[in-house]
Design goal:
131 residues; Immunoglobulin-like; five-stranded antiparallel β-sheet; 1 helix; binds copper (II) ion
Length: 131
């Protein structure tokens, strides 16, 4: 049934195409969602502000992402960052969070919270900063 197949393909394409490594993006996926992100500048350094640009490529349900909140914790130390990052929507499904800073060497857990209305989908990525 090619017509039915075409209709379901249309219904599934409710999110943006995921940019790839040729544009410096890294994929981050869970069972529920997928984003592509790139750090700016691309190398993270201790005590230096950075940002992250994100494209929401796969989402639960059909609603757009209102905002993506990025945060970072050091699980071994029980603390987070010293600054509150700012989130900007650059385009539909494309977001920039700036004002991030990892102030210590070691293991950080970065969380990306995708908000669709009140629904939150969390993706996490671990970063180890060398002294
Ligand atoms: Cu720490």
């Amino acid at each position: 049934m090619p017509w039915t197949a075409a209709l379901s393909a249309l219904a599934a394409s409710n999110s943006a195409a995921c940019p790839g490594p040729e544009q410096g993006f890294v994929r981050l996926a869970s069972a529920e969602a997928e984003i592509a992100y790139r750090w700016t500048p691309d190398e993270l350094k201790i005590g230096q502000f950075f940002g992250v640009e994100m494209v929401a490529c796969r989402l639960p349900g059909g609603e757009a992402v209102d905002t993506i909140v990025v945060d970072a914790q050091m699980p071994a130390h029980g603390h987070g960052m010293n600054y509150r990052p700012r989130s900007t929507r650059l385009a539909p499904d494309r977001y920039l969070v700036s004002g991030l800073m990892l102030h210590m060497a070691g293991h950080w857990r970065v969380t990306f919270d995708l908000f669709q209305g009140t629904k939150r989908t969390r993706l996490t990525h671990d970063v180890t900063l060398k002294p």
